[in-house]
Design a protein that fits this description.
Layout lengths: L10 E6 L3 H4 L2 H11 L3 H12 L2 E3 L2 E3 L12 H19 L2 E5 L2 E6 L2 H18 L10 E3 L9 E3 L7 E3 L1 H17 L5 H18 L7 H22 L2 H10 L4 H8 L1
Antiparallel strand pairs: 1-5, 1-6, 2-3, 4-5, 7-8
Length: 257
C-alpha cells in the first residue's frame, strides 16, 4: 500500500462493489477462468461449486449468480474476475490497491477522483456486470478512509496507522472478554486474552505509527487492574495485597479506603 502512495496523491477513490460475492455473473467468471485453466474437468468442478445450492428458510435453493461466501475458492475467483480491472487501471496509469473486492485508487485532486469514480463505475457495470455502491463509495482524503483496518497519516510522506474503527472494535472485543472473565482467576483471563491480542498485533504489525498501539496497551492494563481491584473487594484485602506488592503501609491504607 505504501509503495503506491506519494506526496502528490493526496486524494483517494474508495470503491465499494455492491454485494460483490452475491452478484458475480457465472458465465463471465467462467470465461475468465477458462483463459487460465485448460483442463475441462477442473472447469466443470468450479462450475458445480458455483452452482451448488444454498439453504434459505430451511429450503435448498439453486445459486444462479454469486460465489459461496466464506468458501476457500471465492477470494481466488474474485481475483481472477477483477484482474481485468487491475489491467485497466494499470493501462490508465493509476496508482491503486486492491484486495479481493476492496479497491482504492490514489489520485491528485478531487476533480480527477470524480472522473475516475464515474469512468470506473461505467467500466465495471458494462464489462463485468458489477455495481458500485455510490452510498458507501467516496472521493476523500486517504487519512479519512480506512483500508483493511489500516489508514494513512497526513504526513507529506504518508505512514501506515490504525483505522479508528479497528481500535474501537478491538476495545469492544476486550471488554467482552473481560466481562466474561469476572470471578475467574486472573491467569485464566490473561490466557484467554493472549491469542486474541497476539493475532490482532500480528495483523497490524505493518503500522508505522506506534502511538495507538501504546494507548491500547495502557488501556488494557488499566482494565486488568480494575478487574483485580474488584476481585479484592474488601478494604482489608486490598490493604494486605497492596502491602504485599511493596507499597508502604500509609499509602496502602489510603488507597484501599
Amino acid at each position: 500500500m505504501k509503495a503506491h502512495v506519494t506526496a502528490g496523491h493526496r486524494w483517494v477513490v474508495d470503491l465499494d462493489l455492491e454485494a460483490f460475492f452475491d452478484r458475480v455473473n457465472h458465465d463471465l467468471l467462467m470465461a475468465r477462468v477458462a483463459r487460465r485453466v485448460g483442463d475441462k474437468r477442473v472447469l466443470r468442478l468450479i462450475r458445480r461449486y458455483l452452482e451448488a445450492g444454498m439453504f434459505q428458510h430451511g429450503l435448498a435453493t439453486p445459486r444462479r449468480q454469486g460465489t459461496p461466501q466464506g468458501g476457500p475458492l471465492s477470494p481466488l475467483l474474485a481475483n481472477i474476475l477483477l484482474d481485468d480491472m487491475d489491467k485497466e487501471l494499470e493501462r490508465r496509469g493509476h496508482r491503486f490497491c486492491r484486495y479481493a473486492d476492496d479497491v482504492q485508487v490514489y489520485i491528485k485532486s478531487r476533480r480527477a477522483g470524480e472522473r475516475v469514480m464515474d469512468s470506473l463505475s461505467e467500466y465495471l457495470e458494462s464489462s463485468l456486470r458489477l455495481t458500485v455502491n455510490r452510498r458507501k463509495s467516496a472521493v476523500d482524503r486517504p487519512w479519512k478512509r480506512g483500508y483493511l483496518g489500516y489508514s494513512l497519516t497526513r504526513h507529506k510522506q504518508s505512514k501506515l496507522t490504525l483505522a479508528k474503527n479497528s481500535l474501537k472494535r478491538m476495545m469492544q472485543r476486550v471488554r467482552e472478554l473481560l466481562k466474561r472473565g469476572r470471578g475467574r482467576h486472573m491467569q485464566r483471563i490473561i490466557e484467554g486474552l493472549k491469542p486474541v491480542l497476539r493475532g490482532w498485533a500480528n495483523y497490524f504489525s505493518l503500522v508505522d505509527v506506534k502511538r495507538p498501539l501504546e494507548a491500547l496497551d495502557q488501556w488494557i492494563r488499566r482494565r486488568l487492574r480494575g478487574l483485580i481491584w474488584r476481585q479484592w473487594k474488601r478494604p482489608a484485602t486490598r490493604r494486605r495485597k497492596l502491602k504485599g506488592l511493596g507499597i508502604d503501609r500509609h499509602r496502602a491504607w489510603k488507597s484501599a479506603g
